């Protein structure tokens, strides 16, 4: 606790990603569950071919669509990683470097895969 | 003792380091009246049943912050918690959680005192001021910014409530952060940059996982969770923007 030994925490990086993902999932999560899990499979509200392959491919090739998919996947993952990491802490598992690498590593790998896949699809 | 005298069982966590290996419970039968607090209950035990029982208390009216205890597992000031609310069940009284026990209900609060010193809990003037310049003037808005955070009585209930402090005692914690914030947002103060180093550090606000129990148990209606979360935003802004406007706090 001596002021001379204070080390700046790098938590703001993870906290910002967590916050962004939390905001996004709160605003868009229920709507995405409704569209992908209820409306399209049951054929209600939306036309049945809303999520057909050609539609989705076109969406993923579009610049804005790419950005949307990337933000949803990456930020949701960072949000989940941070929440899971701190929940370990909350239930008394003294999460060390291993748990940190596993949680944030998963988010990082997911982010990179999403970025790669979205770029591989082309424009 | 009259015939219809009510008697409540008080279970106390005892620990005398010179003879006990570990804390153990002891049950006392305490006659009480409806106006008696839990503090008065343990005072009865000390006066009439077992003089070796140790606990801290002073004002008996929720001002001094000395008599914090775990009462049925909840961090409470024993002077404003009443025996009648537990009767006829037994009431369990223990030393505050997350602190080393010195003796019975007395905890060792040295760690907190060090934290309190580290936040520099006093106004650090922006510039030297002479008597001739007169007193500081504040608008009601400027007073509002810090007033609720200044009500802290250092009773440590919020530390006993904080699961993160329980896991990592180097966390600066709710009360110290609330008091730090109280000075940082005071219009007379110029010490923010120095204090932000603590907020930004690994002992700082990011240990908090927004549980919020600290604010619930506060007997003075301070909202330490609010101070912690405002400073997460401050710390994040400082982290990302320090290269744009470097003026202290950055290392």
Automatic annotation (TrEMBL), chain A:
Species of origin: Accumulibacter regalis
Pfam families on file: Fumarate_red_D
Keywords in alphabetical order: Cell membrane, Membrane, Transmembrane, Transmembrane helix
Gene3D superfamilies for the chain: Fumarate reductase/succinate dehydrogenase, transmembrane subunit (1.20.1300.10)
Entry's Gene Ontology BP terms: fumarate metabolic process
Name under which the protein is recorded: Fumarate reductase D subunit
Source species, domain of life: Bacteria
Cellular-component GO terms for this entry: membrane
SUPFAM superfamilies tied to this protein: Fumarate reductase respiratory complex transmembrane subunits
Transmembrane portions of the chain: 12-43, 63-81, 101-121
InterPro entries: Fumarate_red_D (IPR003418), SQR/QFR_C/D (IPR034804)
UniProtKB/TrEMBL annotation, chain B:
Domain spans labelled 2Fe-2S ferredoxin-type: 8-99
Subunit annotation: Fumarate dehydrogenase forms part of an enzyme complex containing four subunits: a flavoprotein, an iron-sulfur, and two hydrophobic anchor proteins. Part of an enzyme complex containing three subunits: a flavoprotein (frdA), an iron-sulfur protein (frdB), and diheme cytochrome b (frdC).
Name listed for the protein in its UniProt record: Fumarate reductase iron-sulfur subunit
GO-annotated biological processes: respiratory electron transport chain; tricarboxylic acid cycle
EC top class, as a word: oxidoreductase
Reactions this protein catalyses: a menaquinone + succinate = a menaquinol + fumarate; a quinone + succinate = fumarate + a quinol
InterPro entries per record: 2Fe-2S_ferredoxin-like_sf, 2Fe-2S_ferredoxin-type, 2Fe2S_fd_BS, 4Fe4S_Fe-S-bd, 4Fe4S_Fe_S_CS, Beta-grasp_dom_sf, Helical_ferredxn, SDH/FRD_Iron-Sulfur
Main location: membrane
GO terms, molecular function: 2 iron, 2 sulfur cluster binding; 3 iron, 4 sulfur cluster binding; 4 iron, 4 sulfur cluster binding; electron transfer activity; metal ion binding; succinate dehydrogenase (quinone) activity
Keyword Lipoprotein: no
Membrane topology term: Peripheral membrane protein
Origin species: Accumulibacter regalis
Pathway: Carbohydrate metabolism; tricarboxylic acid cycle; fumarate from succinate (bacterial route): step 1/1
Keywords, ordered alphabetically: 2Fe-2S, 3Fe-4S, 4Fe-4S, Cell membrane, Electron transport, Iron, Iron-sulfur, Membrane, Metal-binding, Oxidoreductase, Transport, Tricarboxylic acid cycle
Subcellular location(s) of the protein: Cell membrane
Gene3D superfamilies listed in its UniProt record: 3.10.20.30, Alpha-helical ferredoxin (1.10.1060.10)
